[in-house]
DNA sequence: GTGGTCTAGACCACA
DNA sequence: GTGGTCTAGACCACG
């Protein structure tokens, strides 16, 4: 009914979308967003509103804004947000568990339907993401291609709603992704295999294990930090 | 001061919530909502705003407002919304498929985690829902207890996010539920069994089959209508 | 040259002007400012800009904003600003001394020129202020008529620049005025006498003593607080 | 980031400051300002902005900009500004009176507090200014050391606010100073004497007379011009 | 051509 | 008719 008006205010909503781009590594530290005018148009929003969104991210320490030509909104090294996130997680891990429970649901379903419905083109895209992750160097690239694979699976599921949710969840995940597991590439490869074999149960099963591994990894990280 | 002021779509939001109450059978045809003043207070909203929400539902044919003593907002027989829904589904079933893909994801996860984490109290509640569905008479009761069971499972999963999503999906489902399958009670019972046995894979598997059956049923309904 | 553009941003400048109205008691605690639209027009500024000014005052604890008819920006009991002011003064009284040095200059000159140039109407106004102060009840009235007298003297000086400065200084004074000396009325009366007698030296002399008394009073207040 | 961004009148502000330097004789006719880059840095402003300020002064006839080596912004003989000023004063002397009323206030207070608070170093500086005025040759030197003395007194008052105001007023005075009275040196000397004697009333009294003499001188000048 | 500020005006939610 | 939010567009200061 009101599918795209979930009730947040515009600035907060746009801030969330931009934050997602940072969390997923789409715009890495040091990277620059488009100009305010372009962004405003992209979000179908006035520049004033967009600027409020940028201000939120600025105060959260995600971006810093520079003026002049070659100015713009640049992603910081993310030190401040990382610290804030760790503190919050250390004091209460429940929200993260909640997020992962939901992630398990949407990504298992995505993997299942992907195994049933994937086209050859879907397979090409998923394979490419997997290979790029394998050869990625640097945290930013790892982060980006890890996120990209999960999106590709959701795309292959043919469900726009699942795709949106996969993206939304990913957008909330943030820095955990900074600490990718060494065997992520293998996980992705295994999942992809099951999808190619058109084995929905196996695909979703492996997706679940993959996500639960990540959850465990995160839990450890928070405990030791 | 303006901490929760979303700016501009409160009426639509409230309308959606009230619509959900109708879709899930919480307030059945012929049933009456609380007085405007109570509703307004419940949603932390002014009476004027609430009246706009009611107006939306009125125009959609969900409710009719009667004045005087014993007046109030009464749920109609839902003929108009049903017709509108059928027409829409007949012309494009994709949104419904999208919704069901997502439903499969969240409810499978809910069943899985419920099987892992359910407490004795959770079991009591789920069992009660199942039994009430078995002995329910009339469409309204069926609809209500069917919805209630799915909520109970989501509650047992211990994930507030999954619970919210289960409810949200249900709120969008509407009348399909009018046409419950005869073997729904058996499905619920089977799912509950797997949850009680602490068998996550089986519980989620049965939940999926249950939902896919409903999807098929609906698809047929639309074709023949 | 650029007499009215001293370089502040508009919101800060407007906030300062509104703050002055509070400090001088023109709008007392509990009082209400005009509607945003009127204020915006009065300051020849857009509503958005004016709202930023209101936000500043809101965060400083000077006003609270209520919605609905009979809503608007209302002056608080000023507890928060008072506390903040006391703390600041206790840690560094120098800015207050600086302000008073300047005040001595402008108000002595105002008294001097008033004694030279006052018209009969000026005298009427100054006398009225003095009398009202004598019969005033309540802090708000005292504050208001005290401020009013000093303005009247500055008006009588015939120098718009001095008048502006007297007002500006008064606007920065704030709560000190909350603690009026018992013999303020006598001081005002003495100053007025010298002005009526067209005695510039005596008028400015008395004005100085009046202000220095206030300074001393304030100094004590801060020490004991 | 935008801590000191006043938004929109930087050029005018900078122009005013540079104009003051000319009015006070700090940079005399024929004199050269620093390079654009140095000035820009000094005012913490971009070169483009500074150039706008220079353009303003250029159009007012205060400076002329020469290019090439030994180029820069040179103060003109000030014929054009002087003519403009005379015309303006002849048509309306009120603004000048207003300025002098204010000047009386701030400089009397400065003299008063200087007499109360001057240190030995202050005396040295004030004496030096007085002596240099006595031995000055040429309008430029006269203008410069006259202005300098008044600043020294304001410095000795220990009030930064009074000092700022004395400077600001002086910046607006401009060419009147071109026509210094012969007995200015004696006036300064008398004022200094009262300050050294720690006689606040006398110091401020003499300061007033000094300023009022200047006002009269100016008035005559305008009448005859 | 960038971000920073302000304007003018609309519509919404409120009581 | 109030305050709360957003839009569209302008101009300024920047490097």
Overview of the molecule:
The structure is a homotetramer of 225-residue chains. By secondary structure, chain A is mainly alpha-helical. Chain A has 2 domains: 68 residues, Winged helix-like DNA-binding domain superfamily/Winged helix DNA-binding domain (Arc Repressor Mutant, subunit A); 143 residues, Up-down Bundle (Four Helix Bundle (Hemerythrin (Met), subunit A)). Chain A is built from 10 helices and 2 strands. A two-stranded antiparallel sheet of chain A has the order 1-2. In chain A, helix 5 packs across helix 7 and helix 6 packs antiparallel against helix 7. Chain A is globular, with a radius of gyration of 18 Å. The N terminus of chain A is likely disordered. Chains in contact: A-B, C-D. Chains A and B meet through helix 5 and helix 8 of A and helix 1, helix 5 and helix 8 of B. The structure holds a DNA duplex (15 and 15 nucleotides).
Offer a concise description of the structure.
The structure is a homotetramer of 225-residue chains. The first copy, chain A, has helices at residues 10-23, 36-42, 47-60, 79-91, 94-117, 120-135, 139-156, 160-173, 184-196, 200-224, and strands at 63-66, 72-75. Chain A is mainly α.
């Amino acid at each position: 009914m009101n599918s795209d008006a979930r009730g947040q205010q515009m600035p907060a909503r746009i801030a969330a979308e931009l934050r997602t781009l940072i969390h997923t590594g789409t715009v890495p530290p040091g990277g620059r967003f488009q100009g305010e005018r372009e962004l405003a148009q992209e979000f179908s929003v006035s520049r004033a509103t967009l600027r409020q969104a940028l201000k939120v991210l600025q105060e959260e320490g995600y971006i810093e804004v520079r003026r002049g030509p070659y100015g713009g909104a640049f992603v910081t090294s993310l030190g401040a947000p990382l610290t804030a996130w760790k503190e919050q997680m250390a004091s209460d891990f429940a929200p993260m568990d909640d997020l992962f429970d939901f992630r398990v649901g949407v990504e298992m379903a995505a993997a299942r339907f992907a195994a049933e419905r994937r086209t050859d083109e879907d397979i090409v895209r998923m394979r490419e993401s997997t290979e790029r992750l394998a050869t990625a160097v640097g945290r930013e690239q790892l982060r980006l291609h890890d996120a990209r694979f999960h999106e590709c699976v959701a795309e292959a599921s043919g469900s726009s709603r699942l795709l949106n949710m996969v993206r939304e969840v990913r957008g909330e995940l943030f820095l955990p992704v900074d600490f990718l597991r060494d065997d992520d590439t293998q996980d992705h490869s295994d999942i992809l295999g099951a999808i190619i074999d058109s084995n929905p149960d196996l695909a979703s099963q492996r997706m679940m294990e993959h996500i639960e591994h990540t959850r465990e990894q995160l839990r450890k990280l928070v405990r030791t930090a």
